[in-house]
């Protein structure tokens, strides 16, 4: 009996190890071959647009390679990267949403593992729109938004305002401010409890 229980526990641990445990969307990686070429091109265009917005159109480095989904974003003001993990329309967020979608598909029929997909992946995906993204008439941005929505559904931020802070050696963080940050934490806690 004890052997059977130990074997069952070991099997459950082995299965739950299938869902990676990330600490940020910045450390998530994906096999670029699992994403269509056109979709990667759209992601890269959105990434460079968002980098420009977050750096107030004054970038030192701003690039994205669709072949391997590598990117660079450095603001000229202080030679540091902005807080891309907080914003939609960035490669880290597109990768996060795609990993979440793949995790749900891979673990179809297993609600426990799908819950881990939510807590270990989806909860780390950004929901804050970049500043001025709503005013953009660019079809590329609209296509990227539609693509991201198709990949997975994420909660919309309840507040569109952001604050920008900076200090020596650090780029503007452009983190969600005030009620938006509290709402993001509340949504994360709600998702965790569900």
TrEMBL record:
It comes from Cylindrodendrum hubeiense. The keyword Cytoplasm does not apply. This is DUF7707 domain-containing protein. Residues 136-171 have a biased composition (Low complexity). The lineage of its organism: Eukaryota, Fungi, Dikarya, Ascomycota, Pezizomycotina. Residues 128-171 are annotated as: Disordered. Residues 28-130 form the DUF7707 domain. Keywords: Signal. Residues 1-16 form the signal peptide.
């Amino acid at each position: 009996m004890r052997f059977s229980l130990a074997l069952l526990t070991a099997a459950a641990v082995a299965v739950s190890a299938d869902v990676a445990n990330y600490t940020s969307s910045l450390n998530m990686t994906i096999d670029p071959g699992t994403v269509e070429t056109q979709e990667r091109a759209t992601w890269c265009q959105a990434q460079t647009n968002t980098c420009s917005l977050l750096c107030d159109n004054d970038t030192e480095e701003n690039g994205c390679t669709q072949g391997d989904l590598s990117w660079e974003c450095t603001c000229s003001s202080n030679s540091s990267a902005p807080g891309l993990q907080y914003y939609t329309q960035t490669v880290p967020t597109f990768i996060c949403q795609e990993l979440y979608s793949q995790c749900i598909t891979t673990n179809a029929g297993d609600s426990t593992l799908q819950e881990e997909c939510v807590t270990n992946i989806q909860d780390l995906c950004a929901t804050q729109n970049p500043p001025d993204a709503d005013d953009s008439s660019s079809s590329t941005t609209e296509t990227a938004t539609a693509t991201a929505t198709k990949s997975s559904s994420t909660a919309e931020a309840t507040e569109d305002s952001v604050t920008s802070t900076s200090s020596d050696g650090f780029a503007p963080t452009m983190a969600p401010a005030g009620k938006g940050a509290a709402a993001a934490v509340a949504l994360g806690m709600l998702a965790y409890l569900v």
